[in-house]
Automatic annotation (TrEMBL):
SMART domains for this protein: VWA
Location of the VWFA domain: 42-257
CDD domains attached to this UniProt entry: vWFA
Protein name: von Willebrand factor type A domain-containing protein
Keyword Signal (UniProt): yes
Length: 530
């Protein structure tokens, strides 16, 4: 998912072409720099450095400069390298750090050596566990923590080089180790990391066991499995070849019906995706409000005009509202619901994820994220969910609430507002009606949020106070302005709709921060005569 695939790039090219006609000679224009074919790269080398690996290590030493130079060039200089070795334990030599080519190259060239090991098997499965899952050293035979989380906007590689079966930390290969290796492949798939193993068959005794494990790493994660000669000759060349595999796909979850997949999305609202809905079963449906206490199924349409893409669709929930924070490690304000690993063919597919024991009151925002080794985020995710969604077509946000009631009978819903900017910010709550509710719409801020609004100057448009902390909105357009919020704060306001005529209405409440949409809710209010 690279900017070169986007409509915005085509527009930029057109603009440059238009401006070029002003030059009298093309010779005065400097040549454009070569494009980085892979974009940002995170590459972790996981190396078996036991005594039997001497030939492969020697070959790697002679080729490490070429390998690293390839990474630098393919990433356009936007890369991070990690280096871990293993025997029956795990040793972290280099954590991810920007531009650390010299440190990794120097270690491999001048320090890395094959020796020891105490016999086959080795802890390759646990070394992968360390790297894929960023594990700390505590409680493990591992020297230091593996730090530096994988970047969501990077193409992510693990290069595993070994001649041994996986054996965990107990120096014994059992069925449990095969299962553990399979789980590491599944972990990597869920994080959009390719595992590309290089098998060095120093002995043919275990080839039949090792080969399918290596192939599973590759096929599960979208990587490439390679085998060298028994002497380790060709190890460096194999690594160079597999790191050149930067094929890109582009799965899109739309923000609007008119969304073309451009990044950033130049259109408006990014919190009412038409590609996310809740159904009572695996069968298709028009979309329902989640049934509290029951099992629902979240259907997410994945649109794909590119080659087939393998990855994981993950979904999360949070109380309905705006200003939600995201954190790649903790999920921020979002609660993980579930995920589905799948291959999305050209033309698209629908992921269907069960949502069990839905908590009350049943009004939620839903967030969907497509995580794929061949389709990383184009823009690194930050703390602002709305901005992440706008920037990346791998992310979509759904916040449509259906509120049902009877004429002249009040029906309640909620809106939670927060501050995802990382600094104190003033926020506005703006209510508009695409098909305004025929009747009263009242928001009750509650004591704490009311005091915040008053501290911000108590400004409003199109509202009248109808209680100590409550205001009635004009159903067409109203606003509470300048509410100061500290970073990470979240407040929930209660909404009451009292329709005066039967109908199917649509009203939106949106949180703006300094004029920028930070999320909202579309309330579909359906009433009958009773």
């Amino acid at each position: 998912m690279r900017p070169s695939l986007r409509r915005g790039t085509l527009l930029a090219v057109a603009a440059l072409t238009a401006s070029a006609v002003q030059f009298t000679s093309p010779a005065v224009a400097a040549p454009a720099p070569a494009a980085a074919p892979c974009g940002p790269l995170d590459v972790a080398f996981v190396l078996d450095d036991t005594g039997s690996m001497g030939g492969a290590i020697a070959n790697l030493k002679t080729g490490i400069n070429a390998i690293v130079n390839d990474v630098v060039a393919a990433s356009g200089g936007d890369y991070r390298l990690g280096l871990v070795t293993f025997k029956d334990n795990v040793t972290v030599h280099a954590n991810f750090a920007s531009g650390n080519a010299a440190a990794v190259t120097n270690y491999v060239t001048n320090t890395l050596a094959a020796g020891g090991g105490g016999g086959e098997p080795e802890a390759s499965d646990e070394a992968l566990n360390t790297v894929v899952n960023n594990l700390p050293a505590a409680g493990r035979p591992q020297n230091v923590d593996f730090n530096g989380a994988w970047r969501s906007n990077a193409t992510k590689f693990v290069v595993l080089v070994t001649d041994a079966r996986p054996g965990g930390f107990d120096d014994a290969h059992t069925a449990a180790d095969v299962t553990n290796a399979g789980q590491r492949a599944n972990d990597a798939l869920g994080k959009g990391i390719k595992i590309s193993p290089v098998y060095v068959p120093t002995s043919s005794a275990f080839t039949a066991t090792i080969t399918p494990i290596m192939q599973n790493y590759a096929t599960t994660t979208g990587g490439v499995s390679t085998q060298t000669t028994s002497t380790g000759a060709g190890t460096a060349d194999a690594i160079r070849k597999l790191l050149s595999d930067c094929r890109q796909t582009d799965v899109v979850i739309r923000d609007q019906v008119t969304d073309t997949g451009a990044e950033p999305n130049p259109n408006g609202t990014v919190w009412n995706s038409p590609d996310i809905k809740v159904c009572p079963s695996l069968g298709d449906c028009a979309g329902i409000q989640p049934v509290v206490g029951g099992t629902n199924f979240i259907h997410v349409k994945l649109n794909n005009a590119s080659a087939a893409s393998t990855g994981t669709l993950k979904v999360y929930r949070t109380p309905a509202g705006g200003g939600t924070t995201w954190n790649n490690a903790t999920n921020g304000d979002w609660v993980y619901i579930g995920e589905q690993a799948l291959s999305v063919p050209t033309g698209g597919a629908v992921a269907k994820i069960p949502w069990t024991n839905v908590p009350g009151p049943g009004h939620f925002c839903l967030l969907a994220r497509w995580v794929s080794a061949t389709d990383p985020m184009t823009f690194a995710e930050g703390p602002n969910t709305a901005l992440n969604t706008k920037n990346n077509n791998n992310i979509a946000w759904k916040n449509l609430q259906t509120v049902r009631g009877k004429v002249f009978e009040p029906v309640k819903s909620w809106f939670t507002l927060g501050n995802a900017t990382g600094r104190e910010a003033k926020t506005d709550l703006v209510l508009t009606g695409e098909k305004p509710v025929a009747g009263a719409v009242v928001i009750d801020l509650g004591p704490r949020l009311f005091e915040r609004w008053r501290a911000g100057g108590g400004q409003a448009e199109g509202v009248k106070q109808v209680g100590e902390t409550a205001f009635q909105f004009d159903s067409k357009r109203s606003a509470l302005l300048g509410v100061p919020l500290q970073p990470g704060e979240r407040y929930t306001a209660e909404l009451t709709f009292t329709p005066e005529a039967p109908g199917d209405y649509l009203t939106t409440l949106v949180q703006f921060v300094e004029g920028e949409d930070h999320g909202g809710v579309a309330y579909r209010v359906i009433t009958d005569r009773g």
